[in-house]
Amino acid sequence: MPSPGSLPFTPWPHEEAERYRREGIWAGITFDQMLRRSVDRHAQSTAVVDVDRRWSYRELDDRVDALASGLADLGIGAGDRVMVQLPNRAEYVATVFALFRIGALPVFCLPAHRSAELTALGRASGAIAVITAHLHERFDHAELARSVAEEVPALRHVIVVPEPERELPTGVVDFTTLTGEPRTRPVADPGAVAFLQLSGGSTGIPKLIPRTHDDYLYSVVRSNDVCGVTSDTVYLATLPVAHNFPMSSPGILGALAAGGTVALTLSPAPAAAFEMIERAGVTMTGLVPPLARLWTETAEKREHGFDLSSLTTVLVGGARCPDELAARIEPALGAQLQQVFGMAEGLVCYTRLDDPADVVTTTQGRPMSEHDRVRVVDDAGEDVPTGTEGHLITQGPYTIRGYYDNPDANARSFTDDGWYRTGDIVRRDEAGNITVCGRDVDRINRGGEKVSAEEVEEHLLAHPAVRDAVVVAVADPYLGERTCAFVLVTDEAEPPRGGQIRAFVRGRGLANWKIPDTVTVLDTFPETGVGKTSRKELRRLLTARG
Ligand code: AMP
Ligand code: DBH
């Protein structure tokens, strides 16, 4: 098994790690051991429900065993990175736990990722395999994965979950053939990296987040306490399940750790999701604000015809939930709202189930653990008084100390003494509740999906006629923010129009949510008044025009 030191990741300082172990904050078990415990205690209970399947814990465990053997027979083993790009279906759960069982590291890709992202992720992670679905939302992921493997030589295996009555392309491995007898395997080191999660990021190159079994399991178990997850919980993964939020806050891993049930819906739209809530008796789910609004508006009309009475808790996070929306969620959905402000790098804040209504509707909660350390600081790094806005920095037992193999990002995103700079501007009240006011990095939060301005600018600059590009966030009533690109073009007889440049960016193989909502061609950028090079000031001026 790889030791934590054998992968390019920054461990917690030795003494701090020792304390977390001694005090049992880090439980010293792997995700595979966690699943086995739940299987021992809840063998006949339902572990996973999707659109057409229902597996007990025993069945899930048997599938994990068979798949683990099949993957091992392909030559995938401890420490290998494997990209997983699967929609919200039962295979997702089996795949992730099969990889854990053989000590391989899932790299959590999203179904919306296209060639640009997958190629970059493949290179950055050094993945040797990709596991994907054949078709999802009428897009051919098998072809996509095959073309990515051509670009990334280390990617040796393209494994595809087939569609009924559709032939797989040649050269790929049929997921359903990956099976074998259960085997005894060495147990991974709980202090080792379990998987690579993705940061929404503010740079052009993807930042991979190494999470260990110890640290992540702590965040899951702590989330279960704060959100009241038990073996009676039925958690619906509404958002793409590879996101940190539905994965761990408390998410599918929380439900599985408690012996509860994971329900999965392919579509987050009310028609599909409400049907699943009724069918599976869903008690809890997690939504981004635009979806929470859609569900709330649908429920307010009282015409949908589904029984949502099983629902007790709705978590809303990923982006700032407007106070006005927060106040409507409970009455409409008949479930308690918990706001959640989290990040794949670690720190997760929740409003508590017994908080007064104004805290739940106007703040993003407080850190979930007494072991979280948070500071709100000014530009010089000095702590600001309670109630004053400042930069949020944090460290603790489940916040990473560095990205995977990325010294440049580490230098920017961590202080010299190991505090993670969240990039968020927040205000903290007397009780420690945090309100998110903005951010200090060039990241657009498009309804919970993060867009790195720099990444999109690089794709715009790849257009032969584009001389300069600036991407900014503008307020949007539904999404919270959308992306506006401003470009300068070369002097040509027929300069490209905004729509053509947008189509060009799409053609470069970018996830849909990153395609700028508008591209405006300008003759010149506004004068910033603080020197030509003030990108920050330029962004401010262009945001005002957006
Ligand atoms: P990532 O680092 O990609 O996991 O994205 C995490 C970021 O999402 C945070 O640093 C915040 O900027 C944003 N975020 C998450 N939850 C909330 C929330 N409830 N309110 C405002 N922003 C949020
Ligand atoms: O936005 C996020 O990344 C996020 C939101 C809520 C998150 O990582 C989480 C909860 O754990």
UniProtKB/TrEMBL annotation:
Residues 455-532 form the AMP-binding enzyme C-terminal domain. Residues 36-404 form the AMP-dependent synthetase/ligase domain. Keywords: Ligase. Gene3D superfamilies: 3.30.300.30, 3.40.50.980, Luciferase, Domain 3. One of its GO terms (molecular function) is acid-thiol ligase activity. This is 2,3-dihydroxybenzoate-AMP ligase.
